[in-house]
């Protein structure tokens, strides 16, 4: 098989490795516009739960990757002068550049042809001629995706918050979230180690905060200077490090299809997941695992077998990716609205942060970090001891629900309400079942509002009810 890949990021390189492992007679060529050691970004974090797939797919590169890992178990949350530490999460990370160098070396050793400083900018490019499969692994700004928009049906949702990807010499020992009020507004920092001496340091803020801080006219040096001043206390004698550190808005990329004819898209070109759940690289590499397996099944079938193999790749991967994107969406919305939670008691704030992606249940928190789970229970139950979390009251807008279990009723579904049932028994003064609230929402809206026209207080519940259903088991380490 003759496979040509546009883009030598984790997706393209790993695919080359896996195809060569399957059959050394395959011809696999990767074109990368940058030099071998050029890269943007700093560390990439993986959760322990994701590593099994990489170990099974190629034990050799897995061993080399894990040899360079910084490992940690804790999440540390700095908020309103307090530091909360939650343990039992299981993360590891390495420098993005190191990851790429490992994959390049392994690919080269297996006979993948790597061409650096070679930009492919047209599907008519002669280097693509004669390819059985063209793989677009050209990243988040994929031109191939745009060129094939009619076939692939892409959508790019540009999120409102601003972020900048920096490094720091602070040797963090935990996944560290700093929430810092400043004269400009609230900053959120996502920091995590990638070696013994270096950490990733992503600064995120609302657009109005960003404008007030003057970042709209700041170059990289100015950005670093202002952030170093704002975080002088947290950084101590340490510095921030820049590397193409431009303020950006996160784009959530989705596509209706990932293949057209003999062309297939992988990794960030096909889908992105917000950096707050740290899974983009894992997703890109797992795409390659699935694509390589699908192409194996097309062997011997000639050109006619390729489209079916690419369809099989999409069918197997898309549910997993959509599930992770749903978690990433919940997480990014939490960070877009963090200002709303800043008044919460620190333990509740921390719990809220830890469960934001809707993948970590209370039972799971009890397993990971029983101290934090226990600390938050009296806050939720208003001091009542021994009340199961499911049975604690919750305020939603002007309503007070007596419990947190929600059941969908067939009558509501048939009526197109989308969700119904009662959260706890209604009856106490001021208490209302969720179904009533939902119908209220329907009455208030003009015409036929969708069940997703949810006021802010119900955003979490809306996502759980109306977002794509999680199709994979909860994973330890997913934040
Ligand atoms: C702030 C931030 C933090 C992140 N942190 C994490 C994290 O902790 N963990 C994690 O797993 N993921 C993280 N990610 C996501 C991760 O970086 C991406 O998901 C991952 O790199 C995707 O791999 P890829 O191979 O699909 O694309 P890329 O890594 O973007 O690689 C695409 C390659 O294609 C090349 N290319 C593009 N166009 C052309 C062309 N026309 N011709 C030739 N070559 C071309 C590019 O130069 C690039 O090398 C983060 C992302 C951001 C923005």
State the gist of this model:
The strands form four sheets. Strands 5, 6, 10, 11, 12, 13, 14 and 15 form an eight-stranded mixed β-sheet that branches. The protein has 479 residues and is of the alpha/beta class. The protein has helices at 10-22, 51-57, 59-67, 96-110, 143-147, 149-152, 207-212, 220-230, 232-235, 280-298, 306-336, 346-354, 362-368, 370-380, 410-414, 434-444, 459-466; strands spanning 2-6, 27-31, 43-47, 70-72, 75-79, 82-86, 91-95, 113-115, 133-136, 154-168, 175-182, 185-193, 199-205, 240-241, 248-255, 259-260, 263-265, 394-396, 399-401.
What does the model show?
- With 479 residues, the chain is of the alpha/beta class.
- It folds into two domains: 2-328, FAD/NAD(P)-binding domain, CATH 3.50.50; 343-466, no CATH class.
- It has helices spanning 10-22, 51-57, 59-67, 96-110, 143-147, 149-152, 207-212, 220-230, 232-235, 280-298, 306-336, 346-354, 362-368, 370-380, 410-414, 434-444, 459-466, and strands at 2-6, 27-31, 43-47, 70-72, 75-79, 82-86, 91-95, 113-115, 133-136, 154-168, 175-182, 185-193, 199-205, 240-241, 248-255, 259-260, 263-265, 394-396, 399-401.
- The strands form four sheets. Strands 5, 6, 10, 11, 12, 13, 14 and 15 form an eight-stranded mixed sheet that branches.
- A hairpin with a 2-residue loop joins strand 16 (259-260) and strand 17.
- Helix 3 (59-67) packs antiparallel against helix 4.
- The radius of gyration is 24 Å and the shape is globular.
- The two termini are 39 Å apart.
- 42% of the residues are buried.
- Bound molecules: flavin-adenine dinucleotide.
- Residues 6-12, 31-34, 41, 44-45, 119-121, 137-140, 143, 165, 202, 267-268, 275, 278-282, 284 line the site of flavin-adenine dinucleotide.
């Amino acid at each position: 098989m003759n496979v040509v890949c546009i883009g030598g990021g984790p997706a393209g390189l790993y695919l080359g490795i896996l195809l060569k492992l399957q059959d050394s007679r395959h011809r696999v060529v990767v074109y990368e516009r940058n030099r071998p050691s050029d890269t943007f970004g700093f560390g990439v974090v993986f959760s322990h739960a994701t590593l099994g797939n990489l170990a099974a797919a190629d034990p050799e590169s897995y061993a080399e990757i894990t040899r360079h890992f910084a490992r940690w178990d804790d999440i540390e949350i700095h908020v309103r002068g307090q530091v909360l530490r939650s343990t039992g999460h299981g993360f590891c990370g390495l420098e993005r550049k190191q990851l790429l160098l490992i994959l390049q070396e392994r690919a080269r050793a297996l006979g993948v042809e790597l061409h650096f400083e070679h930009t492919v900018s047209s599907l008519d490019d002669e280097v693509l001629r004669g390819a059985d499969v063209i793989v677009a692994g050209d990243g988040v700004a994929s031109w191939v995706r745009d060129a094939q928009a009619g076939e692939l049906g892409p959508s790019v949702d540009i999120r409102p918050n601003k972020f900048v990807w920096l490094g720091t010499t602070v040797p963090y020992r935990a996944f560290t979230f700093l929430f810092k009020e400043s004269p400009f507004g609230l900053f959120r920092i996502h920091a995590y180690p990638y070696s013994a001496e270096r950490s990733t340091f992503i600064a995120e803020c609302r657009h109005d905060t960003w404008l007030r801080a003057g970042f709209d006219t700041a170059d990289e040096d100015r950005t670093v200077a202002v952030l170093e001043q704002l975080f002088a206390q947290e950084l101590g004698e340490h510095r921030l490090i820049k590397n193409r550190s431009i303020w950006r808005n996160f784009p959530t990329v989705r596509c209706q299809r990932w293949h057209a004819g003999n062309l297939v898209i992988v990794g960030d070109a096909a889908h992105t997941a917000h950096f707050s759940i740290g899974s983009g690289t894992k997703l890109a590499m797992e795409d390659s695992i699935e694509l390589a397996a699908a192409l194996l099944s097309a062997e011997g079938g000639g050109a006619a077998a390729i489209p079916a193999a690419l369809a099989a790749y999409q069918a197997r991967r898309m549910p997993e990716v959509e599930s992770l994107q749903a978690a990433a969406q919940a997480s990014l919305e939490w960070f877009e609205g963090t200002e709303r939670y800043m008044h919460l008691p620190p333990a509740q704030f921390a719990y809220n942060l830890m469960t934001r992606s809707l993948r970590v249940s209370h039972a799971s928190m009890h397993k990971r970090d029983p101290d934090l789970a226990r600390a938050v229970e009296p806050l939720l139950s208003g001091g009542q001891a021994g009340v199961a979390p499911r049975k604690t009251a919750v305020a939603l807008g002007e309503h007070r629900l007596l419990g947190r279990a929600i059941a969908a009723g067939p009558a509501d579904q048939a009526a197109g309400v989308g969700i119904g049932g009662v959260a706890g028994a209604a009856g106490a003064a001021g208490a209302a079942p969720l179904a009533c609230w939902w119908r209220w929402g329907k009455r208030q809206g003009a015409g036929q509002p969708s069940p997703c026209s949810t006021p802010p207080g119900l955003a979490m519940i809306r996502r759980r009810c109306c977002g794509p259903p999680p199709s994979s088991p909860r994973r330890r380490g997913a934040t």
